[in-house]
Specification:
This protein is mainly α and about 400 residues long. The protein has one domain: Farnesyl Diphosphate Synthase (Orthogonal Bundle), CATH 1.10.600. Helix content is about 70%, strand content about 0%. It contains 18 helices and no strands. Helix 7 runs parallel beside helix 8. The chain is globular and about 50 Å long. The two termini are about 30 Å apart.
Length: about 400
């Protein structure tokens, strides 16, 4: 039985609804029980990742990295290697395998790692100069849609790209993802939602242009049009939510559960887009602030009025909405673990040494509580250990 299935049974909210309006004492008791349940799931997930998921993910990544080294074209080979500079988010994708039942966890993990490996490669490649950066990014990222469409033909992903000879690298990643997904029992139920989430990524990547390529005017128009009504989101927050792969990851993990239906898939996508996804991408922007400035790429985080105050206020609001969205899902503790791990991965980064980053970190640790502080400390220790052993850690 998956973590999601276990945690969905006998929810405290259901008991509270049966027992009538809560008293102050009962609310404190419920919170205490919730905290204990979350700590248990957190510890179980961390142990499962360290002992089972992490080693499997690193083997998958080593396989793709070896394949990247064989790419004939020098520019494409460089982009593929650059993708592994952020291998932390590839390993993070594998964490979603903790949501899958044991019988299908390995297949889910292979699909998760392959999808994120393709995402990282395409992201690096689409930032390279081309005659038509919008068309090039859109065609390249079409691979993400094909990766979620078993049996679909491969288009010419490099139709607008100046370099083409990848030795079959991208096709191999896409096919590996599709093969793994075909073995997951509920993939037909989540496929439409997953492809919808991937389509948002394609649009975001095609329109998220550097200043030299045209900037964010088209991105702003598109994001404004797709911002959910009454959400209260700014356009750049919607754009941030669209650009993340987390919704796809959650749906791949759900595909491993035989009991998931289309309604459950839509609920998952509604939680990750926009709330959890917006928080994810904006934290990534926080870490990449200096690099974006160096490359002439305007950070989405820079649209907030007077950092750190405005950014901190909005990030706190997004964190609260993300936490509440996770709490409404079946198996809420498992999704909260992933949310906590995601935040801690970014907030533990050495790049989070600015006044703005410290202010945002304080707001999020206040929102998520002690587990986030513990997770940040764990990630910092992991980075130091890898630094001492000479292993790369993004």
């Amino acid at each position: 039985m998956s973590i999601a299935t276990q945690a969905s049974q006998g929810r405290i909210a259901d008991r509270a609804a049966r027992e009538g309006p809560p008293t102050a004492t009962s609310r404190r008791l419920a919170l205490a029980v919730e905290d204990r349940e979350f700590v248990f799931v957190f510890a179980e997930t961390v142990a499962g990742y360290l002992l089972r998921i992490g080693p499997q993910a690193r083997r998958e990544l080593a396989r793709w990295q070896a394949r990247a080294d064989e790419i004939p074209d020098r520019e494409l080979r460089w982009c593929a290697r650059q993708a592994f500079a952020k291998s932390g988010n590839m390993e993070g994708a594998a964490l979603f395998a903790a949501l899958a039942p044991d019988a299908h966890a390995r297949g889910a993990l292979r699909a998760l790692v392959a999808f994120q490996t393709a995402y990282n490669y395409l992201d690096a490649l689409s930032e390279r100069p081309s005659e038509d950066p919008v068309a090039n990014a859109a065609k390249l990222h079409e691979a993400l849609l094909v990766a979620l469409s078993p049996g679909a033909p491969h288009p010419d992903y490099y139709a607008h790209n100046p370099d083409r000879d990848d030795g079959g690298y991208l096709t191999a990643i896409v096919d590996a993802c599709r093969h793994a997904l075909a073995g997951l029992p509920s993939f037909p139920a989540v496929a439409a939602s997953a492809r919808g989430a991937a389509a948002r990524i394609v649009d975001f990547q095609a329109l998220n242009l550097a200043e030299a390529q045209g900037g964010h005017e088209a991105l702003e128009r598109w994001a404004t049009a797709v911002t959910p009504q009454v959400s209260g989101l700014y356009w750049w927050e919607t754009a941030a939510a669209a650009g993340t792969s987390l919704s796809v990851h959650s749906l791949i993990a759900a595909a491993a559960d035989p009991h998931v239906d289309r309604s459950a898939a839509r609920d998952l996508d509604d939680a990750y887009f926009p709330w959890i996804g917006a928080l994810h991408t904006l934290l990534d922007s926080l870490v990449d602030r200096r690099e974006d400035e160096r490359l002439g790429q305007r950070s989405l985080l820079s649209y907030y009025g007077q950092p750190p105050a405005d950014a901190t206020t909005r990030m706190r609001a997004l964190a609260l909405s993300a936490r509440d969205a996770a709490q409404r899902l079946p198996g809420p503790h498992a999704h909260r673990v992933i949310l906590t791990a995601m935040c801690s991965y970014y907030l533990s980064s050495p790049e989070c040494d600015t006044t703005e980053a410290r202010s945002i970190a304080a707001a999020l640790t206040e929102t998520f509580g002690l587990p986030l502080n513990v997770a940040i400390a764990m990630f910092r220790a992991r980075r130091r250990l890898r630094g001492l052993t000479g292993r790369h850690c993004a």
